[in-house]
Amino acid sequence: MSTGSTATGNTKSVIRDIFRHDLPSSIVVFFVALPLCMGIAIASGVPVSSGIITGIIGGIVVGALSGSPMQVSGPAAGLTVIIYGIVSDPSLAVHLAVIVLAAGTLQIFAGILRLGQWFRAVSPAVIQGMLAGIGIIIFSQQCHVMVDDNPRKTPVENILSLPEAVEKGIFPLDTSQHHQAAYVGLLSIAIIIFWRLGVPKKLRVVPAPLVAIVTATIISYVIELPIIKIVLTENMLGAFALPTMDSLKALTDLSVFGAALTIAVVASAETLLCANAVDQLHTGPRTKYDKELFAQGVGNVLCGFFSALPMTGVIVRSSANVEAGARSRASAILHGIWLLVFVWFLTDLLAHVPRASLAAILVFTGYKLVNVNAIKKIYKDSPSEVLVYLATTFSIVYFNLLTGIAIGFGLALLKLVYTFSHLVIKFEDVPDENTTYLHLHGAATFIRLPKLAMALERVPPMRELHVFMEDLDYIDHACLTLLVDWEEQHKATGGTLKMDWSELHPRFARQSLAPAEGSLARRSNGDAPANRPASTDK
Asked: Which residues make Cβ contacts (< 8 Å) with residue 63, sequence separation at least 6?
């Protein structure tokens, strides 16, 4: 077969795969994305159009440039807290478009400078704490919106006034607006739960949030409930405006630039962590992190031009994309096209959607972000990490997102320093047996080398020293070298050294020791196998 025929055959195969797999999955992702784009916009305090435009750009533009083909981008719950804070501040609200544009520019440069991997270097406890903090804030804020009330100024006030929201939703039992909105919201949550648990798997292809919104919209329309509906701008795509020099000068204000930097950092971290998670859901091409970071930057620059919400890669839409059978980036691109078609021809339908129903979806989303299983896993792996998790969550709720992440990251670093500097040495000398026992617990690093050296100096001459390492988490080359050198000196006094290398080599990476340092390895008395690995560094 000729080269031309082969190319034609490959093209037909690609087109066939798109129609068979990517086209159906793109429709599923569209139905998942539409209510989330609207709900996140409302939670952020901006027009619904801002969220949908972000979804369009995230699908068509970022989908085409993405370094993670299966990932779907759009407005994310993780940025809701930041955007709501900006919108609530009159001095920052007028500069939101420039802030988003600047955040995208920072992401573009980060991608060019190949900083993609660095955004992934965050403790799981900090990430889960961040998600939990965001979840609590969204939950407490949207509970008020779900009863057609206005959220309070701060997350703490929203939490403290939750009983008031419950009271407005339940009492008095009459036809008040709050009471009726609460019924619509609770009905939406009930439908989501039932659709996930009680509906056959084949029907679950239709996303639960979409079913909830359609049902709530039909009910509120048929019986003409006097509750708040979605408010749309007349021209959803008419906000496009190139930035002027005057608007760009706002970036010289530290608060404006700080907001842009916050969005860039949080959006990048959330995107790349999401991409890592998506990689675990499929067997296709792996993520190119720097390329993905660059694509997100381009998308956010365009979002700034269109006065839209900033975007990230989002796990809900991305996992739906993979589960629906997507094979390429065509699915993400097509979902953006469907959003654009919807905006162009079917905008009038959105004016009938109850705001309480969208708020209910976000209440459920906020609840899900507080992942109890993740907390259990963190506790199982390292109980002390739970403190980092709790501190991050509390700080985000009480202060703000950036401060909470900074506190969590700082505590994680302090814990790391403590872990690699904490060494407990139990010294036991038994003269009757002519033996000394040394039990090491913690981490033997160069930071604690003087402590280990002092313990070795206490060993009397001609003693047989047993060093137990089963409780040792880590040992570095400096401490290994100290033991090797000390053994040579101790042998001159007639003493010996025994170490249980079998406890070490399953846990530490291989690292070569010089031939002159191999005397420890030559012992074959059962405690130190002659053919032990030449590595002991983790």
From this structure: 72, 73, 329, 332, 333, 335, 336
